[in-house]
């Protein structure tokens, strides 16, 4: 005689592995089968929600029954197979074909008209229950998001605190996640080398191994770390109330590297200016090569007319560039006196900047409100609404970061500007003694473009250096009134860049403590 299929199901894997529901269903089916003298020969277990059709184990049971491999099926309750109407229709078809369908907890006979009607009603109620449960779950999910809470598992570097509470920074993995952004933002790592470095620093996945490349990529792309919540499936973005792990400036720099704007391939030879020079004709990077004891930088693009240039010629032009930034004693005295004046008015200027940033922040929030109104009035479709909303939220984060810099006395501080000018004035000496990696880093900080046209090199100064490079010398023939105007313009530019978080930290590339004096360098030359 053919036996029966015992089908048991729970809605989640967690229920199946940690709960007792599966075993309780199995025991109930065994007692029912023994009481009714039914022989259960096949057990099928499923850990999948019945809210949507397509459960593989349930479909396997239907296939066995249709092929005559079993006499019938025993379910713990009607809703174990009937929480969507399509699967219930499939069970009804089996009953119409004479296949036995038993329910342990309901006395229902599908072979009778009354029993079938009763079962249909219960199936409809079960389907409506799951639809209502889904809707309520969705309301609760979006309710949390609108409160700034992330109702899913905390990403790498954060810890869950339970329902209704924001994620907090993991004291152990949080600094490592921040370090991942800092390292990748340098442009010196790809995802594989970054994963190995993070493993060396102590970052592990849940099984104790290296973090997967996909997880690392998702982490670096996730705006959660700057305080925004993005729902990947729908593309929606919300403002979170959790503490940001990194600033938006660092996040933007990492995004630029991920977009391919920075080459992170490892190199065999550590040439002084590798990956820093570009061809003026085709704008591709020049490739360094050693020939007859000299290093040349050449464009390897097919049909490019440019010839190579020697490294010593490049270095000579680079040092000439840095010489233009040096300050003599008169200039140092002059800008320090201007900074002294700036300090006396700094409180008012800081208050004015704070006021302007608050106005800008209010303007962004007004635009967000108007955007929401336009969406509710159906003047925008959802895709366009989410794109504009994401853009405005990122702009809001930028302004909030500038305000935070001011509150921490970082943004636009005269002390910060003085440190920058001191280190910039010693850039020539620092570049002379820097290691090749530091020398390249310095050149990239002080320049925005480095084009080679034949034997000529065009070094474009970066935003923070442009005004300094174009300043008139105090001992030149420039009119006396031009000097204060020029330095006021320089200080205004540096102030604005510092407020935006764009003033580079030169301490990372100019370690003056280990350098010899300028006179010793001259003697060595």
Overview of the structural elements:
The protein has 525 residues and is α/β, with parallel strands linked by helices. Helices cover 51% and strands 12% of the residues. It has 19 helices and 14 strands. The protein has helices at residues 13-18, 21-35, 56-66, 85-96, 113-146, 173-185, 191-201, 213-221, 248-258, 311-323, 329-344, 346-376, 382-407, 414-425, 427-433, 436-446, 463-469, 482-499, 518-524; strands at residues 4-10, 40-47, 72-75, 100-103, 158-159, 168-169, 228-231, 236-239, 278-279, 287-291, 294-298, 309-310, 447-453, 456-461. A four-stranded parallel sheet has the order 2-1-3-4, sandwiched between helices. It has a three-stranded mixed sheet with strand order 9-13-14. Helix 6 (173-185) crosses helix 9 (248-258), helix 12 runs antiparallel to helix 13 (382-407) and helix 15 packs antiparallel against helix 16 (436-446). The chain is elongated. It starts with a strand and ends with a helix.
Write a compact overview of the structure shown.
The chain is an alpha/beta fold.
Layout of helices and strands:
Blueprint: E1 4-10, H1 13-18, H2 21-35, E2 40-47, H3 56-66, E3 72-75, H4 85-96, E4 100-103, H5 113-146, E5 158-159, E6 168-169, H6 173-185, H7 191-201, H8 213-221, E7 228-231, E8 236-239, H9 248-258, E9 278-279, E10 287-291, E11 294-298, E12 309-310, H10 311-323, H11 329-344, H12 346-376, H13 382-407, H14 414-425, H15 427-433, H16 436-446, E13 447-453, E14 456-461, H17 463-469, H18 482-499, H19 518-524
Parallel strand pairs: 1-2, 1-3, 3-4, 9-13
Antiparallel strand pairs: 5-6, 7-8, 10-11, 11-12, 13-14
């Amino acid at each position: 005689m053919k036996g029966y299929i015992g089908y048991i199901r729970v809605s989640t894997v967690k229920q199946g592995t940690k709960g007792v529901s599966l075993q309780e269903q199995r025991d109930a089916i065994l007692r029912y089968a023994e009481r009714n003298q039914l022989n259960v020969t096949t057990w099928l277990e499923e850990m999948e929600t019945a809210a949507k059709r397509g459960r593989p184990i349930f479909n396997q049971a239907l296939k066995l029954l249709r092929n005559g491999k079993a006499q019938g099926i025993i379910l713990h309750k009607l809703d174990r197979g009937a929480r969507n109407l399509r699967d219930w229709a499939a069970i009804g078809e089996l009953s119409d074909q004479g296949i036995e369908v038993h329910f342990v907890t309901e006395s229902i006979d599908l072979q009778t008209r009354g029993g079938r009607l009763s079962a249909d009603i219960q199936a409809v109620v079960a389907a409506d229950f799951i639809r209502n449960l889904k809707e309520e779950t969705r309301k609760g999910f979006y309710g949390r998001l609108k409160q700034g809470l992330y109702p899913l598992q905390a990403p790498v570097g954060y810890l869950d605190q339970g329902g209704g509470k924001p994620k907090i920074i993991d004291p152990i993995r949080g600094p490592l996640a921040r370090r991942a952004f800092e390292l990748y933002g340098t442009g010196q790592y790809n995802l594989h080398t970054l994963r190995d470095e993070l493993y060396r620093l102590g970052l592990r996945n849940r099984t104790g191994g290296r973090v997967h490349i996909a997880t690392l990529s998702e982490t670096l792309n996730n705006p959660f770390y700057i305080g925004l919540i993005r729902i990947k499936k729908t593309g929606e973005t919300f403002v979170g109330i959790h503490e940001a792990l990194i600033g938006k400036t660092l996040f933007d720099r990492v995004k630029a590297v991920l977009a391919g704007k920075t080459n992170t391939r490892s190199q065999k030879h550590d040439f002084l200016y590798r990956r820093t020079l570009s061809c003026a004709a085709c704008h591709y990077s020049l490739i360094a090569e050693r020939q007859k004891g000299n290093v040349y930088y050449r464009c390897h693009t097919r049909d490019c007319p440019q010839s190579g240039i020697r490294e010593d010629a490049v270095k000579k032009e680079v040092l000439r560039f840095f010489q233009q930034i040096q300050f003599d004693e008169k200039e140092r005295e002059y800008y320090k006196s201007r900074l002294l004046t700036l300090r006396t008015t700094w409180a008012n200027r800081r208050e004015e900047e704070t006021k302007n940033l608050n106005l800008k922040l209010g303007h962004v929030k007004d635009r967000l409100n108007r955007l929401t109104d336009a969406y509710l009035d159906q003047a925008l479709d959802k895709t366009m609404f989410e794109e504009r909303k994401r853009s405005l939220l990122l702009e809001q984060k930028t302004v909030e970061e500038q305000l935070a810099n001011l509150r921490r006395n970082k943004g636009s501080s005269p002390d910060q500007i003085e440190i920058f000018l001191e280190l910039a004035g010693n850039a020539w000496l620092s570049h002379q003694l820097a290691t090749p990696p530091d020398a390249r880093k310095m050149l990239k900080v002080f320049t925005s473009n480095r084009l080679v046209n034949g034997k000529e090199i065009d070094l474009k100064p970066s935003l923070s250096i442009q005004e300094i490079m174009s300043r008139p010398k105090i001992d030149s023939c420039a009119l006396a009134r031009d000097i204060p105007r020029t330095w006021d313009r320089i200080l205004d530019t540096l102030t604005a860049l510092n407020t935006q978080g764009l003033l580079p930290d030169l301490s990372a590339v100019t370690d003056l403590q280990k350098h010899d004096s300028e006179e010793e360098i001259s003697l060595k030359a």
